[in-house]
Amino acid sequence: MSTLAAPNEVVTRALLRAVNVPGLDRPAALITLDNGLDHTKPNTFGPGGLASLDEAITAALAADPAFIAITGKPYIFCVGADIVGLPQLADRAQALEIGRLGHRVFARLKDSTVPTFAFVNGAAMGGGLELALHCHYRTLSGGAAALALPEVSLGLVPGWGGTQLLPNLIGIPAATQVIIQNPLMQNKMLKPQQAAELGIADILLEPADFLERSLEWAADVVRGQVTVTRPAVDKDMWAGVLYFARETLNQRLHGAVPAAYKALDLLESAKDGDFAAGTAAEDEALADLIFSEELRSGLYAFDLVQRRAKRPAGAPDKGLARTITKVGIVGAGLMASQLALLFARRLQVPVVLTDLDQSRVDKGVGYVHTQIEKAVTKGRMDKGTAAKLYGLVSGTVDKSAFADADFVIEAVFEDLGVKKQVWAELEKVVSPEAVLATNTSSLSITEMAAELEHPERVVGFHFFNPVAVLPLLEIVRGERTDDVTLATAFAVGKQLKKSSVLVKDAPAFVVNRLLTRFLGTVFAAVDAGTPLDVANSALDPLGLPMRPLALLQLVGPAVAYHVGGTLHAAYPDRFGVSENLKRIADSGQPIVVDDQVNEEVAALLVVGDQPLTAEQVRQNALDALAQEIRLMLDEGVVAEAQDIDLCMILGAGWPFHLGGVTPYLDRTGTSERVTGQRFLPPGAASLPA
């Protein structure tokens, strides 16, 4: 154990106590995992935590209990390995040892002759869920907030039995979804009901008296009054499911995420049921991946999302924030309607939509009501909450309804003149203290507020589509935006459960500026004569969430052309205007169909006779990103490179294995070649030199 000592480990203790359960002739052994901190600091397993669990299991078995059960502290079961300690491992031998230690300790529960139970009372992720899988039986609280095996998203694999136990419990299709698909879909979590339906838990219980009911249920199982039956796993489809999964990974990632392919190999080995061989393979895979560049980038990205996103750099004292009791939304289109639903759900205050005519207002409010109805139908919202939200969201053509609003946000056409006119009209109606927020994606906040009597209360509040899914909120400070307005904006962002990043008032801010430069480089290659399919696939080795043309289609060619024009006006030397992009926008046709280039649209393009290779397109795009990021940092658009990466991860869905963008540019040498320096210190998101 000395070689695995982790000096910074917050040890999760395994606290053992005997519990008398009615109907049993001897006590049960209840082991509670608790690191001594509140629920915001979840239980994790480092060497010290595994040793404590090992000792507790030994003591429990020595007491000859009726059964052994493991549960967690309030709201938390266990969220897995202490990943903070992984970079401290000195060599591959240590990585192998930590994998083997976890397997040895957990296997004691699987191999026990005394019945073992996991009472999953709260969040169970990674090694925490694997611990539960080793137990003979599992109860699950309906209040458990997060259930997942997220390792692949970080550049790892479930390394403590998950790849071997889960497919043999719930079948290979569902296991592939949990171990590979969900982590690659912005680390999607399972809800308790879903986990129970998949068969991960044997019974789903209410959170209010979860422990008491779990003990009673376990006693019934031990006494034979409850028989747990699980459906047989179909192994005939095993190879076919994994073949399809591999093909899907190839199409999407093109080999860019080694962990996903390792996980597939491990799932394949689980079919024959040789648990010892399978877990040994997990150890080897874990040891390989711990010393990979992808893992270091993944850990860096994880830290950004879990820590930096919760403490935004440059945010004013939150004590300055005003209380919001009513929200006004100018516009009733799709974006405005999405905002109305979000504000009503999260802030629980009246929300009023306005637009030019009643039919548009009615359509916007109708959209909100339809989404509420869908949530009720799908069981995501109870009828009482729905009734409350119906009452909170209303619409009118009369802007005087904003007179008592504390926060008004506009989501109208992306034109500076239109937005200035909106604010000029509203300033006559709202109170001098009301915050005026704009959802502009590229226009100047300072110019927008320049002619107002109170420009200090105007702030950029840039959401990303779809609003309910993407967590990023770019909060833009104009030249005259004051601290009270900014503090209120950050407070509202937190209430909306968004991750806010402070951005300087610069054209297109962060995400749209970088994506426009990126797409502009790709379209410059098309304009030069590069075939669309070559340009579209050129970035495949990065494993981005979308190819360039699919991204263009999502954003909308007309919107992309408009933002490109805004940036061309600001930086004509770096942002070109592609007439071919305008032709695509004017055609009104999709540029890609089923991930294939639409030949009818391709025929509309006018191109040169100097085509580039895929490698040249890719390098030009990376060079452009490196140059633009360095310029943005020099301009003070954000505080540090970490904020650039946070924006790209949360707003554009760029993957953890890239660390966002700057770690990849650093480790490929692009940063130093283009700008003369790295974005991050050596070892910050990469292996030590």
Explain this structure.
Keywords: Fatty acid metabolism, Lipid degradation, Lipid metabolism, Lyase, Multifunctional enzyme, NAD, Oxidoreductase. Residues 509-588 form the 3-hydroxyacyl-CoA dehydrogenase C-terminal domain. The protein is 47% helix and 12% strand. It is α/β, with parallel strands linked by helices and 689 residues long. The protein folds into three domains: 13-291, Alpha-Beta Complex (2-enoyl-CoA Hydratase, Chain A, domain 1); 318-504, NAD(P)-binding Rossmann-like Domain (Rossmann fold), CATH 3.40.50; 511-636, N-(1-d-carboxylethyl)-l-norvaline Dehydrogenase, domain 2, CATH 1.10.1040. Strands 12-11-10-13-14-15-16-17 form an eight-stranded mixed β-sheet, sandwiched between helices. A six-stranded mixed β-sheet has the order 1-2-3-5-7-9, sandwiched between helices. A three-stranded parallel β-sheet has the order 4-6-8. Helix 17 links the parallel strand 14 (435-438) and strand 15. Helix 2 (92-110) runs parallel beside helix 3 (127-134). The radius of gyration is 27 Å and the shape is globular. It starts with 12 loop residues before the first strand and ends in a 14-residue tail after the last helix.
